[in-house]
Write a structure and sequence with these properties.
50% strand; single chain; Neuraminidase; 4-stranded antiparallel beta sheet; 23 strands; mainly beta
């Protein structure tokens, strides 16, 4: 087998990497289930469950009519639901909710494109990136749908939102300062606060379920957007942006950790390492 994707876990205490699964196909964005028993990933428009207990297996998840899912997806805090971003019905990414075991998706975001990125800790709201009139901004919405709440207002490109454990903050990446950096905004609305000031291009901040650390992806400083198949680094910092450290470097980028990826105990996180296309 010529591997294309390597699903791996990094242990914070031992600083070791464990290979969970390797495949010839492109797999993306592992979400660790709240029960700890499986990872949720996407590949070629479909959703898959990688079972971690016993003999590992990769199983396709029934997502009904949604067969053009992207890598913006996640499992609810209670483990009962999953959110997906899919363009099958409307030709543009739209956020849906469906049972975590699979089933027919229910529409949440009526405006599109919308790219899901994070559950609120109480499981009642989503944070997502919405493109409206060519502006990339951060929004939240209740899981039953309704009116979306806008949190950023076109100050550069804003993307990749995820909630802090206490639900008070939404961390996201923004180009408002020039290159993409990590920022945060109050979940109820208010002024944004810059968190990183680095020479890198920083994307996809994911606060730990323990509430003490944020893991994120950093490209070289001259990279635009978040392409795949580049040498990148996974970094970690405290919630206020202090004590930044590079955990390791890898070949990856797009698909490596676009959506929430922490294990429920906060001791490890999952990601995808890629191998060059022959």
């Amino acid at each position: 087998m010529t591997a294309r994707s390597s699903i791996e876990a990094f242990d914070l205490e031992s600083k070791t990497i464990r290979i969970l699964w390797q495949a010839e196909v492109l797999l993306e964005a592992p979400n660790w289930s709240p029960c700890g028993r499986y990872l949720l990933l996407n590949s070629d428009g479909r959703m898959y469950r990688l079972m971690l207990n016993g003999a590992r297996s990769l199983e396709m998840v029934d997502t009904g009519f949604s067969v053009e899912c992207n890598n913006d997806h996640g499992i609810s805090p209670d483990g009962e639901w999953m959110a997906i971003s899919d363009k099958t019905a409307f030709g543009a990414s739209t956020v849906y909710i469906l049972p975590a075991t699979g089933g027919e998706p229910r529409l949440v975001t009526k405006r599109r494109p919308s790219y899901w990125h994070g559950w609120s800790p109480d499981g009642r709201r989503f944070a997502y990136c919405g493109i409206r009139d060519d502006l990339f901004d951060i929004y939240t919405i209740g899981i039953e749908g309704g009116e979306e709440q806008r949190l950023t207002f076109g100050e550069g490109r804003n993307d990749g939102p995820d909630y802090s454990r206490d639900g008070k903050w939404i961390y996201f990446n923004s180009s408002r300062s020039g290159r993409m950096q990590i920022w945060r905004v109050p979940a109820e609305g208010g002024p944004a606060e810059r968190i990183t000031d680095s020479p890198y291009v920083d994307w996809f901040p994911h606060p730990s379920p323990v509430g003490d650390k944020i893991v994120f992806l950093s490209y070289d400083g001259d990279v635009f957007d978040h392409p795949r198949d580049l040498d990148v680094r996974i970094r970690m910092m405290d919630m206020d942006g202090s004590n930044v450290e590079t955990l390791f470097e890898l070949f990856g980028g797009q698909g490596t950790m676009n959506s929430p990826n922490w294990a429920p105990d906060g001791r490890q996180f999952a990601y995808v390492r890629y191998f060059p296309v022959a």
